[in-house]
Write a structure and sequence with these properties.
Helices cover 31% and strands 20% of the residues. By secondary structure, it is of the alpha/beta class. The protein has a six-stranded mixed beta sheet with strand order 2-3-1-4-8-5, sandwiched between helices. Strands 6-7 form a two-stranded antiparallel sheet. Strand 2 (30-31) and strand 3 form a beta hairpin. It is globular and about 40 Å long.
Length: 216
Amino acid sequence: MSTILVTGFQPFGGEKINPAWEAVRALPDTIAGANVVKLEIPVVFGSGADAVSAAIDHIDPDIVLCVGQAGGRAKITPEFVGINYRDARIPDNDGNQPHAEKIVEDGPDAYFATLPVRAMTEAMNEAGIPAAVSYTAGTYVCNDVMYSMLHALATKHPNTRGAFLHVPFATEQATKQPANTASLPIEVMTRGLEVALAAAVEHEVDTVGESLGTTH
C-alpha cells in the first residue's frame, strides 16, 4: 500500500484555529487505496520545514501534501511553485520575522510542485468544490515549508511527489472579518483535500486541458 503524508499548521496570527489542520485531521485514514498519515506542524520558519523533512525521512511516503491557510482567498488553491525567499509581514509563532532571506543559500530560485496540481484542481471543481491553481505561495511560513519540502524531495527522495495547498478562512473565522470576506466550511475543505489527493494518486502526469493560468 502506498503512503500519503499530509501536514497542516497550528493556529497563527491570533486565530484560535487553523482550518488547514482542522481539515487535515478530519481526513479518512485511507484515500484511493493509500494510507494517510497526518501531521500538525508549527508556524515557525525552519522548524515547520524541519518537521516535514523529519516525517518524510521516517515515513518515506509516496506523496506529500502540505496544507496552509490563505485568509482572503475564496477557493482551495493548490500551489504551482515555491520560491527560495523569506520575507515576513508578521512574526511567526516564535517571533521570527526574516526579511529578504534565502531559504536554502545555494538552492535553486524555485521548485515546481511535483503533484498534478491542475488535475487536483479540476477534480475538486468537478466535485462542486471551488478550487483554482495558485502561482504564488507567498513569502511566509507556507512558502518556506513548500520550498523546503520540494528541496528535500529533489535532493533526498526523488521518488516522492509533493505539493502545497492553501485553504481559505473557515466559516467560523469569517464572523470576525469584513462582510465580504470569503470562507468555506471545514467539512468542505476536508472533502476538497480528499478529492485532490485521490486525483494525485490517480495522475502520475498532470492534465493539460483548459488553461488555468492568470492575467495578474
